[in-house]
Design brief:
This protein has 417 residues and is α/β, with parallel strands linked by helices. Helices cover 27% and strands 21% of the residues. A hairpin with a 6-residue loop joins strand 18 (379-381) and strand 19 (388-390). It starts with 5 loop residues before the first strand and ends with a strand.
């Protein structure tokens, strides 16, 4: 038995790393779409969550057009900073009516994939958009395709609706979903939405899992012209519009971890599984989500950045972790870190004393560490040599100068009091 073998919602998985529910950036054609998922399976995905179906969208079985603009979100630091060229994330702008695929396309895709790969775990997804009657109709159709489970996507904040009205509609769906579908169900949540009394309705009789989103809604600004300043990729050139849009990327991973922990408490109390969706880009981050109690992780924007090979890479890292730690299965360490979630600042500060020093042989006199204007009083620069020094009595050991130094000339020293 593989160390990666586990379960989500009672469905056996060959790996806890799944292809998450996401629209492709290109126009979608059913045959090519199936081949894309087939490649994800061969590259090590433990399961596939299909693109969310928008019950209100019209379309056909074979094709689903995409009207969108992708936007790379950069670090936003000055050009001479090492982090300036590092991507912080991805946003995709699309008209609301083009969010998700049509019921015709989504149901056909699910049916064809389960016919082609009957033994592989494939999960459907239905977005809460529009009328509840349309939602239930799609849910019933999707359940009849043979998928192994369905994700109820409650993560969308519908335009023109108050949050209280939204979670009341969600409750109505949970009260009736089992009348239309007997398959395992997962509810996808986001911190963008106030779910109110909905959380009280999340019990084992209604759902089997929570899928916790790591993305959130932000405002993408227009460019501000500044002469010949660096030009960033943006669809807002020469416009004055600010765009509310979902933000995806590695900068969201701490929010994702918090969501897994916060909603995981509710899930564990109700004996539900937890899936961590989006925001994870490495094997280490996937392991961290599992340690916090996730039963699986779903990759989406990570595939946009790193391709389908990321499944194989993360699987290898998880297997190596199991080998190093003596675990026979990933399920042995799921939730192992929950007892370690605490604010340890007081314990850390009162048991250790860290201070920094400068390795003069590595100092390039670049003045990047001139920290008097970076919230620090401990740095001094020799007026004759230009070499930086640190006044130990003023150094708190915060480590920021080491982060800022591009030449790795700052050294940290730990001393126990």
């Amino acid at each position: 038995m593989s160390a990666l073998a586990c379960q989500w919602m009672g469905v056996a998985l060959s790996s806890p790393v799944l292809m998450g529910s996401i629209n492709l950036l290109s126009h979608m054609e059913a045959g090519a779409h199936q081949n894309f998922f087939s490649k994800a399976m061969r590259r090590g995905a433990g399961g596939v969550v299909l693109p969310p179906i928008n019950p209100e969208r019209q379309g056909n079985e074979r094709k689903s057009p995409s009207l969108l603009q992708s936007v790379r979100i950069d670090a936003g630091l000055e050009a001479d900073s090492a982090a300036a060229t590092a991507p912080m994330g991805l946003s995709v702008l699309r008209p609301e009516e083009y969010g998700g695929v049509s019921p015709q396309y989504g149901v056909f895709l699910a049916k064809e994939l389960k016919t082609r790969y009957p033994a592989f775990p494939i999960f459907g997804s239905v977005a809460k958009v529009g009328r509840n009657a349309a939602f239930f109709s799609v849910l019933q159709e999707l359940a009849a395709t043979g998928v192994d489970g369905i994700e109820l996507d409650f993560s969308r904040l519908e335009a023109g609706k108050e949050e209280g009205g939204i979670w009341q509609e969600h409750i109505a769906i949970l009260e009736n979903a089992r009348n239309f579908c007997s398959l395992p169900l997962s509810v996808k949540l986001s911190l963008d939405v106030n779910y109110g009394e909905l959380l009280a309705f999340l019990d084992k009789s209604r759902v089997d899992s929570l899928s916790v989103s790591g993305s959130h809604t932000g405002l993408l600004p227009p460019k501000i012209a500044r002469g010949n300043a660096r030009s960033y990729s943006s669809p807002f050139d020469k416009t004055e519009y600010w765009a509310p849009t979902k933000l995806h990327g590695p900068q969201e991973r701490c929010r994702a971890f918090y969501n897994v922990y916060r909603y995981g408490e509710i899930a564990r109390a109700k004996q539900l599984h937890v899936a961590c969706t989006d925001a994870l880009f490495t094997g280490e981050e996937a392991i961290q989500a599992l340690l916090l109690g996730a039963h699986c992780v779903q990759l989406s924007s990570a595939v946009a950045w790193r391709g389908l090979g990321i499944f194989r890479e993360i699987n290898r890292e998880i297997e190596q972790y199991c080998l190093d730690k003596g675990y026979f299965s990933v399920e042995e360490f799921m939730g192992a870190a929950l007892a370690s979630v605490k604010n340890f600042a007081r314990e850390f500060v009162f048991t250790r004393k860290r201070f920094m020093s400068v390795d003069e042989s590595k100092c390039k006199r670049c003045e990047q560490c001139s920290c008097t204007d970076r919230l620090c009083l401990a740095f001094k620069t020799d007026k004759l040599t230009g070499i930086a020094t640190i006044v130990r009595e003023l150094c708190s050991g915060c480590d920021w100068c080491r982060v800022c130094c591009p030449h790795h000339a700052v050294i940290a020293h730990d001393a126990v009091w």
